[in-house]
Amino acid sequence: MERRKFMQQTMLAGAGILGSGSLLAGNKTTALGNQNAGQTQNGTDKINGNEKPAAEKPFNLNYGFHQGMFEAHAGKNFIDQIKWAHDMGFRSIEDNGMMGRTVEEQKKIGDTLASLGMKMGVFVVTSDQWHWKTTLTTGKQEWIDKMVKDCKLAIEVAKRCNAKEVTVVPGNFDRSLSIEYQTANVIKALRIGSEILEPAGLIMVLEALSDDMYHMQRNEGDIMKNIERCWEEIGYFQIGDNPGRKEPTTGEMNYKNIFKYIHSRGWKGVMGMEHGNSKPGKEGELALIKAYRESDSFL
User: Fold this and answer.
1) Which residues of 204-214 are buried (b: 16+ CB within 10 A; e: fewer)?
2) How many structural domains does the chain have?
3) CA 221 – CA 66 distance, rounded (Å)
4) Which residues contact 240 (CB under 8 A, 6 or more apart)?
5) How far is CA 262 from CA 103, 233, 243, 271, 289, in A?
6) Quick one: pLDDT at residue 24?
7) Which residues contact 42 (CB under 8 A, 6 or more apart)?
8) For residue 16, what pLDDT band results from cuts at 50, 70 and 90?
9) What is the pLDDT at residue 55?
10) From CA 34, how far away is CA 24, in angstroms rounded?
11) Is residue 3 part of a domain?
12) 35 pLDDT exceeds 60?
């Protein structure tokens, strides 16, 4: 396969590929359902005893939140968080730890997203967190075998949660090998993985750590020019302001202009909200939504 075609169809390194493990969505799983949902006498919805603000229109871009981001309003139940976020105008989620959830949880999430007309963003192809170790760069067969096994598992997970893109992490540097050998080892492994995922209609998004939008700004700056330079290779965006890796408007990045540029290029994919909340509790969650409304008001 030609390099560009291979890169675009199966690797798609992104300006929004994942970063710090401390922010990984879904590292902890919770029971799913909506047993605490109800309605007040005046007709406003209630979840876990908390009234929701009035429903909002969808955003211009498709921002995908992760578990816990709206917990103060919707409670710890992820299904309730999805429903609450939908009412706030969000139309996607991302859940890095989806493969660590039970089959029942995966299906409930997928069914909920489908019923609300929402999209599933990325989840990480790993069944036991091997991606944080020195793995594919080594060229050792044991890691290729593990990736193959997890790619096959990921196909079934994707069917349950309606995912179209999955994140593959090449792992840490192997200090005993030159960068050229490590690169060759990773390419070999990715080709094997793509041969498994491509027939299932899944796009392998390569997680080159420090290439998400927060890290790109912190490490290099000139983020809009960098997005332009590698546009054809971008499979997924992930958001975070710098410094602090919180929601837009909390740092130095002009996300309103960045989002405007991405929208002008015709981007239709998910924009992963790979960051924390700058403030705790309900106040912080409403501040986050306000920040996205402000940054999304570019039309």
Assistant:
1) bbbbbbebbbb
2) 1
3) 26
4) 19, 212, 213, 214, 246, 274, 275
5) 35, 14, 22, 10, 20
6) 30
7) none
8) very low
9) 74
10) 24
11) no
12) no
Q: How far apart are CA 299 and CA 291, in angstroms?
A: 16
**Contact assessment for residue 196 and residue 151, using Cβ atoms and an 8 Å cutoff:** yes
Query: 């994707």: which residue's tokens?
Result: 158
The answer, yes or no, to whether the previous bond of 248 is cis (omega within 30 of 0) is no
Q: Rounded to whole angstroms, what are the CA distances from 54 to 34, 36, 71, 85? A: 19, 19, 17, 11
CATH code at position 222: 3.20.20.150
* Structural domain of 213: 12-17+55-133+156-170+200-295
The answer to the question of residue 204 being in a domain is yes
d(CA 21, CA 6): 28
Phi first, then psi: give them for residue 29, nearest 5 degrees. -110, 150
Query: Cα separation of 164 and 123, whole Å?
Result: 10
What is the layout of strands, in order, in the sheet containing 37-39? 37-39, 45-47, 50-51
- Is position 212 within any domain? yes
Domain contains 235: yes
Residue 202's nearest CA partner among 227, 239, 170, 236 is 236
Tell me what the mean pLDDT of segment 154-169 comes to.
97
Give the residue-averaged pLDDT of 200-217.
Answer: 88
Question: pLDDT tens digits for 64-112?
Answer: 999 999 999 999 999 999 999 999 999 999 999 999 999 999 999 999 9
